[in-house]
Design brief:
By secondary structure, this protein is an alpha+beta fold. It has two domains: 75 residues, Beta Barrel (OB fold (Dihydrolipoamide Acetyltransferase, E2P)); 164 residues, de novo design (two linked rop proteins) (Up-down Bundle), CATH 1.20.1440. It is built from seven helices and eight strands, in the order βββββααααβββααα. A five-stranded mixed barrel has the order 1-2-3-5-4. Strands 7-6-8 form a three-stranded antiparallel sheet.
């Protein structure tokens, strides 16, 4: 078996066999992949603290036929605040489920890896995780090539007037002439569209100063949720949990 090293974020874990654990890792070089940790659930395992979800670790792995095996794990950053704060835990769980759901196994995704790492750093200390989450969703969609169509009608390609609607199925804004073709319409205004565009480009570290209308925030949350759901083939468990936390 070949030995290799990589730095990785632990997206999630699951129990395997009587004492082992499988990690879903996300690295800059190798994308998303699974690795088994032998004896990880035993009380004296040296891997217990280093292989928690959200941890950023230096790894040494042995490649295997069906699954690689973790040989060494050195903690680079624990992101412990994301596990200690229930709201931030809910957002971080949602983010890793998005990454896990959208990115195929072993597909290189360097920009998304760096973006997730940077977003975790900001999430640890932000007083406003809701706005950060909106920016994360929009930016992730941009990296994935799923940008919503915002500068003209997604149905006919024409310019849109003052009365605007958003359709997740259409993939963006639709004009009044096209609205009858879609049943998932959300009424939006130009301020909502402008906020989506701004949140998709602003430095995450500067979001503390970003002001957004409460009604725009609710509208953007709804349209992003429906847009993401329309592009994934399965429901997001963490989104339900996040909704319960935010009620």
């Amino acid at each position: 078996m070949a030995l290799y090293r990589t730095n990785a974020i632990v997206l999630r874990t699951r129990n395997f066999g009587e004492a082992d654990r499988v990690l879903v890792l996300f690295s800059e070089e190798f994308g998303k992949f699974e690795a088994v940790v032998k004896g990880a659930r035993r009380q004296r395992s040296r891997f217990i603290g280093n292989t928690l979800a959200f941890n950023y670790i230096k790894t040494m792995l042995l490649s295997g036929k069906s699954m690689d095996m973790l040989s060494q794990a050195e903690l680079v950053r624990s992101f412990g605040k994301l596990r200690e704060d229930l709201t931030k835990f809910a957002y971080a769980s949602y983010w890793v489920e998005l990454v896990d759901g959208f990115i195929p196994e072993r597909q290189e995704a360097k920009e998304i890896f760096r973006f997730l790492l940077a977003a975790f750093l900001v999430l640890e200390n932000t007083p406003n995780p809701m706005v950060l989450n909106l920016a994360f969703e929009i930016r992730l969609l941009n990296y994935l090539g799923y940008q919503p169509q915002l500068d003209h009608c997604a149905g006919c390609g024409g310019d849109y007037p003052a009365e605007i609607f958003f359709s997740a199925i259409a993939g963006g804004v639709v004009c009044p002439a096209c609205r009858s073709q879609y049943r998932d319409l959300i009424s939006v205004d130009k301020a909502d569209i402008q906020a989506v565009e701004q949140l998709g480009s602003i430095d995450l570290r500067k979001l503390e100063q970003y002001q957004i209308r409460p009604d725009s925030s609710k509208t953007i949350q709804k349209l992003l949720r429906e847009f993401i759901e329309a592009r994934l083939d399965h429901p997001l468990k963490s989104q339900t949990f996040l909704g319960m936390i935010m009620e």
